[in-house]
Every structure is written in structure tokens, then in C-alpha cells.
Write a structure and sequence with these properties.
Helix content is 39%, strand content 20%. Strands 1, 2, 3, 4, 5, 6 and 7 form a seven-stranded mixed beta sheet that branches. The radius of gyration is 15 Å and the shape is globular. By secondary structure, the protein is of the alpha/beta class. The protein has a single domain, classed as Rossmann fold, CATH 3.40.50. Strand 2 and strand 3 form a beta hairpin. The longest helix is centred in the N-terminal third of the chain and has 16 residues.
């Protein structure tokens, strides 16, 4: 689930590349195919938009091309809307018996409710990881969104330059959470 608020829309081309690169790097660790990892992406701002659903792309090249093509709306930060869209438009239709992961990227403070949408996702047994980027996100919101323990599911980067190193840490968190991805649904 990707933050597409005004601050993201106004990033430099280098920071935008690193932002999208984080997503592509995490996905690159896994086998994207019909029977293995399925990827979906929701971009949130004032509204949430499902960029692509599980099963739309079955290889990394197509996923990376779709990620590169994402435009950010550049409005307000409403992560709750994004979480609700992810639940209703992606995980409600995900394959049963398969571990599901959600990686939430945030660089600001959400102005809508995140508590209920986060709880509903966790009730669906979705493993939620939260990533705060920059200086303006609220750590308590990351903690609220992510599964516990926060030390395993919450990540922070004070600058976009730090994003390349986060990919490995996110992968390790997913794999060390007693769930190894052999077939799963993952949303950014």
C-alpha cells in the first residue's frame, strides 16, 4: 500500500526512483507466478486506487513496469481509506490457506481512522508491516497499523537514501515471522 500524497508527488526524480525501488526490491526476493507470490498495489491519498490486483501480473518484469507507471494523486494522507481498499479489493478475494502480507509505506500522518481498518486486516490473518519514511510520519500510527511485535513489523527510514537497505530487512522480517513465502498474496 503506497502513500501517494502531495509530499510523495513532489519528490525529486531520484527519491521517487528510490521509493518505487524499495517496492521492486522486496518483490525481487520472491518468485512471482500464478502458483507462487501474487502481488497487488493500492495507492492511497485522499482516495485509494487499486493499481493492480492479485493475479494481474505473473512475472517480476510486468510487476516492475506497472510500478514504474504509477502516478501519485498528490492529495491528503488517508491511510485508513487505503487499508479499507486493500481489505475489500484485494484480500477479500485472496487465495485461502496462503499467507498474506501487506507492506504499508507512509511519509506523513494519516488524517483518517487507521485503527479499525488495521484491526480488520489483522483479523483476516494478514501480516501487516509498516514503513515510515522521512521526518513527518507518526510512529504511533505505524505501530497501530503493523502487527506485533513492532520491532519485527515496523521500519523507519529518515531519508529516501536509506530505502535500499530496508528491502533486505523487510524480507528478513517476512521470512523470520515463521512464515516462508512459497505461495502468498502481497500488497504494497
Amino acid at each position: 500500500m503506497i502513500d501517494g500524497s502531495a509530499s510523495i508527488k513532489n519528490l525529486s526524480s531520484e527519491d521517487t526512483s528510490q521509493y518505487k525501488g524499495l517496492i521492486k526490491s522486496v518483490i525481487s526476493f520472491y518468485n512471482v507466478s500464478k502458483d507462487a507470490l501474487n502481488v497487488g498495489v493500492v495507492v492511497y491519498s485522499t482516495n485509494a486506487t487499486t493499481e493492480f490486483q492479485f493475479g494481474r501480473y505473473y512475472n517480476k518484469s510486468d510487476v516492475n513496469t506497472a510500478i514504474d507507471a504509477i502516478d501519485f494523486p498528490g492529495e491528503f494522507t488517508r491511510a485508513g481509506n487505503g487499508l479499507t481498499a486493500v481489505r475489500n479489493e484485494l484480500f477479500a478475494n485472496s487465495r485461502s490457506g496462503i499467507p498474506n502480507f501487506l507492506v504499508v509505506l507512509m511519509d506523513g500522518v494519516s488524517i483518517d481512522d487507521i485503527s479499525l481498518p488495521s484491526a480488520l486486516l489483522r483479523a483476516m490473518d494478514v501480516y501487516v508491516l509498516a514503513v515510515g519514511i522521512g521526518d513527518f510520519y507518526a510512529k504511533p500510527q505505524l505501530d497501530e497499523i503493523a502487527n506485533d511485535p513492532d520491532s519485527a513489523y515496523v521500519f523507519e527510514a529518515s531519508s529516501y537514501d536509506m530505502l535500499p537497505t530496508l528491502a533486505t530487512r523487510i524480507k528478513e522480517s517476512i521470512c523470520n515471522g515463521n512464515v516462508i513465502i512459497t505461495g502468498a498474496g502481497t500488497v504494497f
